[in-house]
Each structure stands twice: as C-alpha cells, then as structure tokens.
Amino acid sequence: MEFVQQNLIWVALALVSGGMLLWPMVAGGTVARLTPAEATLMMNREDALVLDVRETGEWGSGHIPGARHITLAQLEKRLSELDKFKEKPIIVVCATGNRSSSACGQLKKHGFDKVFSLGGGVSSWIEANLPLTTKV
Questions:
Q1: N or C, fewer C-beta in 10 Å, the chain?
Q2: Which of 93, 94, 118, 122 is catalytic?
C-alpha cells in the first residue's frame, strides 16, 4: 500500500493505459482485416459481398468487380439494402482501410456479424495486381 501511495501518478498511468488497451474488446472488439488474397478466397468460397464505401468519384475511377457501392456517409440510411446479406460475409473496402473500419463498426451495431475490412483498402488490392473495373 505504501508503494501505491508513493507512486500514485505511475499507478494511475498504468491503470489508464491498461484500460485503453482493453477498451476495444469491451466496446465491441476490433475489426478483422483481410489481405487481398484472403478477401479473394472469401469471395470465391463463401460468396462474400464486397461493399465499397468510398466516395462516388473514387468508385468511378475503378472498383473491385462485383462490388456494391454505398458511401460511408449514406451507409446508415441505406442499411435496409444490405439486410438480405446479414448471413453472408461482408468485405468492406475503402481507399486505405480507415473508412472501412468505421463502416464495419456501423454494420456490427446493426446485427451484421460476419464483417471484415480489406486491410490497406483498394491500394493493397492494386499492389496485389488484382483487377479493378469501371463498369457499374
């Protein structure tokens, strides 16, 4: 007890940093990130839906073939369009992986359990020499 009293600031710092490390698990977990190879396997073997949450201009410059487009800003309003995919894996894609993590959180809040983010986004898809299309 004497140690705690003499080192109160260090003990408090340790408690706060530990709490920050545990918070993602308590608040709903972290988002599973897939590599382009893992995403491709999931698309082929489990008929996963690819959901692109980039802005319309980004989508138009090239997207993963077969992907569905709903911008992150529209996602909350258009969730009903995805209800039929609740039992399927959903791979969420953006440019670099940041917006897709946010979209995964929104989907999980609304009961979508099999939600994944493409780590590195479309950039990692391109680096893996995988195809993009501009067809709608």
A1: N
A2: 94
Per DSSP, the three-state class of 132 is coil
Instruction: Report which of 95, 88, 134 is spatially closest to residue 115, judged by C-alpha positions.
Output: 88
Mean pLDDT of 16-21: 66
Q: What six digits make up the tokens of 133?
A: 């299309």
- Find the mean pLDDT for residues 88-108: 93
Dist. CA 14–CA 110, nearest whole Å: 34
- The Cα–Cα gap between 23 and 69 comes to 31
| Claim to verify: residue 72 and residue 52 sit in the same structural domain | yes
Collapsed DSSP state (helix, strand, coil) of residue 14? helix
Structural domain count of the chain: 2
Are 107 and 61 members of one domain? yes
Q: Write down the pTM of the prediction.
A: 0.79
* 4: containing domain: 1-27
In the annotation, is 104 catalytic?
Answer: no
78 and 13 within one domain: no
Asked if residue 79 is part of any domain, the answer here is yes
Instruction: Tell me the average pLDDT across 11-19.
Output: 71
Specify the pLDDT at position 98: 86
